[in-house]
Design a protein that fits this description.
The complex is a heterodimer of chains A (281) and B (316). Chain A is α/β, with parallel strands linked by helices and 281 residues long. Chain A has 10 helices and 11 strands. The chains are: A alpha/beta (281), B alpha/beta (316).
């Protein structure tokens, strides 16, 4: 065939071995298998089954990434979150193939954009100058809580609705996802969209197995139990988290993630620092 | 070579030429073999009660080190207090083996450690480069001992060693040993600068022949510090040296050992290479600073059943 021809050469269809994907964990910007070597089948796909040691490694990665992520400018974090939305846009087909409705993917993209916009505004809403009876400037500023353990809801929109509000303010997260294929596909999006490694870490497996280790971990600062349906387990996790005075988010069940999330999910993972500064000198 | 040196052990090479012949007569190191052996020993899994024992032993072997230009008396006092009681929340946690500081900080550390059983090591002899005249090195050593150090970590002159002037290095070690008097002498080979495994083996034997009580891998000031293969090689050297001359010498890897997992790999290696005789803080030390916190975190994990975090341990 002459080189000038624009038509693609015809490739004869032939039988070939299927190249099937293994869904691995997402820890520290890499996609490792579970330390335990375990996998489980979800809809015919091989998925890594995370162990408590994977959770431990993920917390180490999240802790290592946290200061730099929190130290990035709010503007920069907003850009990074917006980039996530751009990258999902290009992966619509992949999410569709995993059974996520196009309307939900729209909502997911819009949610990233919405939270991206909040990055440089949340400080004004959650903090500000306080009037005090004395010669002082008194300023309250919100700061990220730190490393957040998240037991995520099963829908993709739910997953994004718990990750984005946590990271937009400078927290880093260790997420236990219950919808592995969609969650790891999201991880592939995050890995290619300027989100620094370790800011989001996604573990796939049994929440009931991993969550207690996150709840009792001394180096996890907050726990989001949005995806825990079992009330008994949630109570147990709250009790374990109390040992290190973690912040615990336990939304009432049946949250409608399609609605307006409000600022609650962001401000719940912020600590308010108030500074008194003398004036008049 | 001095008479004091040759009288120390019988059957020693007794001229610079003999020493050279002896060191170059040591068998060459199988690079691939020793790296594979070290890697294989690093895969052992040590769990539960064995792990608890290994962690406590590793803590007892730590030479808690601070060798920074920014060291202050306050920092050295805090570190010495930590050496005595690494985990203030748990009285069952053993103290470390020693505190290792610069000579100027020896009196400060000595005031805290006096009578505690925790040794006080001081680097000396123009640490870390070793590039100073002999009388400066000897004065450095005497000052450290006078200040209260009972262990001296000296550096060898790598320049002389690499130039092939083994007798110079030998005589220097002998002189420092004499200046150190009753203090234990650890000889730092700085293996990262020696270039080859053959050189590490020669330097190990040279130091032991000259009277070292310990051979130590590194200063921690060059990019390549303690590695498993180098430590394995040194463990083999001390084992073979005892077989030949009947004198036991200790080993101290230092630099780059940061995790409990690493520390346990070293313990496994001692056990497999030298056996029980060296599994004691008198014969094996881990030169480290950040390692101790990791050991304490793992220890806390075993005692409390949940993962510990660095927020609950001192920053040093």
């Amino acid at each position: 065939m002459p080189k000038s021809s624009k038509t693609a050469p015809a490739v004869a269809e032939r039988s070939r071995l299927a190249v099937r994907k293994t869904y691995k964990l997402y820890v520290g910007g890499k996609f490792p298998r579970s330390e335990s070597g375990r996998t489980y089948l979800v809809d015919g796909d091989n998925v890594a089954l995370a162990s408590r040691k994977d959770a431990r490694d993920a917390v180490v990665a999240a802790r290592a990434a946290q200061p730099k992520w929190a130290g990035a400018t709010a503007y920069n974090r907003g850009q990074v979150l917006y980039r996530v939305a751009e990258m999902i846009e290009a992966r619509r087909a992949e999410f569709a193939a995993l059974g996520v409705a196009p309307v939900e993917v729209d909502a997911v993209i819009d949610r990233w954009v919405w939270y991206a916009g909040w990055s440089d505004k949340v400080a004004q809403v959650a903090g500000g100058a306080n009037p005090v009876a004395g010669p002082f400037f008194n300023i309250s500023a919100p700061e990220p809580t730190g490393v957040v353990g998240v037991i995520a809801p099963s829908s993709l929109l739910g997953l994004v609705s718990v990750i984005a509000p946590a990271i937009v303010t400078g927290n880093t997260v260790v997420v236990v996802a219950s919808n592995p294929q969609a969650a790891i596909t999201l991880a592939e999006v995050l890995a290619t969209s300027d989100v620094p490694g370790g800011v989001v870490n996604i573990l796939t497996g049994r929440g009931a197995e991993i969550a207690p280790w996150l709840a009792s971990h001394d180096d996890v600062n907050a726990l989001d139990l949005s995806g825990v349906d079992d009330a008994g387990l949630a109570t147990e996790l709250e009790r374990a988290a109390a040992g290190t005075l973690k912040r615990v988010l336990r939304p009432v069940s049946g949250v409608d993630y399609t609605g307006d999330p409000g600022t609650g999910p962001m401000t719940a993972l912020l600590e308010i620092k108030t500074v008194w500064h003398p004036k008049g000198f | 070579m001095t008479a004091t040196a040759t009288s120390r052990l019988s059957g020693l090479p007794d001229s610079p030429a003999d020493l050279r012949t002896f060191l170059h007569g040591l068998p060459g190191v199988d690079k691939v073999g020793i790296e594979a052996r070290a890697a294989a020993l690093g895969t052992r899994s040590v769990k539960t009660t064995s792990k608890a024992q290994a962690i406590d032993l590793a803590i007892r072997m730590v030479d808690l080190t601070t060798l920074e230009g920014a060291d202050t008396p306050g920092k050295v006092r805090a570190l010495s207090a930590k050496a005595l009681r690494p985990d203030p929340a748990d009285p069952t946690c053993p103290p470390v083996a020693a505190v290792c500081v610069y000579p100027a900080m020896v009196p400060t550390a000595a005031a805290v450690l006096a009578g505690s059983g925790v040794h006080l090591a001081s680097v000396a002899t123009a640490f870390p480069s070793g590039q100073a005249p002999l009388d400066v090195k000897l004065a450095d050593t005497r000052d450290a001992v006078a200040g209260g150090a009972d262990e001296i970590d000296m550096v060898i002159s790598r320049g002389a060693f690499l130039a092939g002037d083994y007798a110079h290095v030998f005589d220097e070690i002998v002189a420092v040993k004499e200046a150190a008097g009753p203090a234990h002498l650890k000889v730092i080979l700085e293996t990262g600068e020696l270039g080859t495994y053959d050189n590490v083996r020669r330097a190990s034997w040279l130091a032991m022949l000259a009277g070292a009580d310990f051979i130590k891998t590194s200063t921690g000031k060059v990019p390549v510090a303690a590695t498993l293969p180098v430590t394995l090689l040194m463990l083999e050297a001390v084992r073979d040296f005892r077989d030949r001359y009947g004198r036991q010498v200790g080993v101290k890897p230092a630099g780059g050992i940061r995790t409990t997992k690493d520390a346990i790999k070293y313990l496994v290696m001692i056990n497999e290479t030298c056996g029980d005789d060296w599994l004691h803080p008198d014969w094996f030390r881990l030169g480290a600073s950040s390692l101790l916190n990791d050991l304490l975190m793992q220890r806390t994990k075993l005692t409390t059943g949940h993962y510990a975090g660095p927020d609950y341990f001192t920053l040093d």
